[in-house]
Amino acid sequence: MDATLSGNQAAQGLATVHKPTGRVSDPIFVGLLWGCGIFVLVLLGLIIAMLFEGGLPALQEFGISFLWSTTWNPVTEKFGAGVMVFGTIFSAVIAVIVALPLSFGIAFFLTEIAPGPLRRPIGVAVQLLAAVPSIIYGMWGFFVVVPLIAAYVQPPLIEWLGPIPLIGALFQGPPLGAGMLTAGLILALMILPFITAMFVEVLESVPSMLKESAYGVGATTYEVYRNVSVPYGRTAMVGAVMLGLGRALGETMAVTFVIGNATRMSASLFAPGATIASTIANEFPEASIGSLKLQALLQLGFILFVISFIVLALSRMLVRSKG
């Protein structure tokens, strides 16, 4: 008989071994644990059922074209999710593109470059950014970021990049300040602390022997970062990025302040738009019980849930493929 056991075999062995139990307390404790686990499944099932059942009449009214229709007119009661789905994904992708290099830089600075007295204050500041309520980000973005972008960022970009074929479509339109780019930037600031914190943990888990060996053969700091630290923790890093993407997809109040809340689709970064979450936040109080508008909003919520589920499933696939 082989004296060694794999991890799974050892776990199975532990599960089947006889465990001493108390007279009363142990069964109660095990029952409570079962209750906690089942509670999660029941809660998730109730949320899915409520969204699906509540939004099903809208899907039956407009058909499967509800998913990509760009019409959203409460007056004529014509609803489609195309603009909101586009805005949700577009703004979240902008946020990840902006936040990812910043998170890499901050995390590597904290773990490799920063002197001891400076490391702790910056680390605490990153944690505090994660604790700021989203509505504060929204108000700060509306009163500070929007005017700055309208005055100093959008005009030169429209003038320099707008006439260029193909990419020029991304930089056209009036310099309003509020729009997809501003929403993406605010979202990037909001997901930055989460991604950075996970990157720091990943980089700190890299064995020092590996890095010292690389330094010993003459590698530079950048080469150690690129060839040792990042490859060692890329699985967890992918998970961190997808976690940030998931939060960006569902963010509500901050986006509502700065995205412009226009239910029309445009390829321009400067055009106002809407996300699923911002549309629900804006129009839910005006939707009466049983109305087609309320059913359309519930269907939007179900679509957002499906998108988040797809992102989670995709992240698990990426993690497994790179593990």
TrEMBL record:
<dbReference type="GO" id="GO:0005886">
    <property type="term" value="C:plasma membrane"/>
</dbReference>
<keyword id="KW-0472">Membrane</keyword>
<feature type="transmembrane region" description="Helical">
    <location>
        <begin position="296"/>
        <end position="319"/>
    </location>
</feature>
<feature type="transmembrane region" description="Helical">
    <location>
        <begin position="180"/>
        <end position="203"/>
    </location>
</feature>
<feature type="transmembrane region" description="Helical">
    <location>
        <begin position="28"/>
        <end position="52"/>
    </location>
</feature>
<dbReference type="GO" id="GO:0005315">
    <property type="term" value="F:phosphate transmembrane transporter activity"/>
</dbReference>
<protein>
    <recommendedName>
        <fullName>Phosphate transport system permease protein</fullName>
    </recommendedName>
</protein>
<comment type="function">
    <text>Part of the binding-protein-dependent transport system for phosphate; probably responsible for the translocation of the substrate across the membrane.</text>
</comment>
<dbReference type="Pfam" id="PF00528">
    <property type="entry name" value="BPD_transp_1"/>
</dbReference>
<dbReference type="GO" id="GO:0006817">
    <property type="term" value="P:phosphate ion transport"/>
</dbReference>
<feature type="transmembrane region" description="Helical">
    <location>
        <begin position="79"/>
        <end position="110"/>
    </location>
</feature>
<dbReference type="InterPro" id="IPR011864">
    <property type="entry name" value="Phosphate_PstC"/>
</dbReference>
<dbReference type="InterPro" id="IPR051124">
    <property type="entry name" value="Phosphate_Transport_Permease"/>
</dbReference>
<keyword id="KW-1133">Transmembrane helix</keyword>
<dbReference type="InterPro" id="IPR000515">
    <property type="entry name" value="MetI-like"/>
</dbReference>
<keyword id="KW-0812">Transmembrane</keyword>
<keyword id="KW-0592">Phosphate transport</keyword>
<comment type="similarity">
    <text>Belongs to the binding-protein-dependent transport system permease family. CysTW subfamily.</text>
</comment>
<feature type="transmembrane region" description="Helical">
    <location>
        <begin position="122"/>
        <end position="153"/>
    </location>
</feature>
<keyword id="KW-1003">Cell membrane</keyword>
<keyword id="KW-0997">Cell inner membrane</keyword>
<feature type="domain" description="ABC transmembrane type-1">
    <location>
        <begin position="85"/>
        <end position="315"/>
    </location>
</feature>
<dbReference type="InterPro" id="IPR035906">
    <property type="entry name" value="MetI-like_sf"/>
</dbReference>
<keyword id="KW-0813">Transport</keyword>
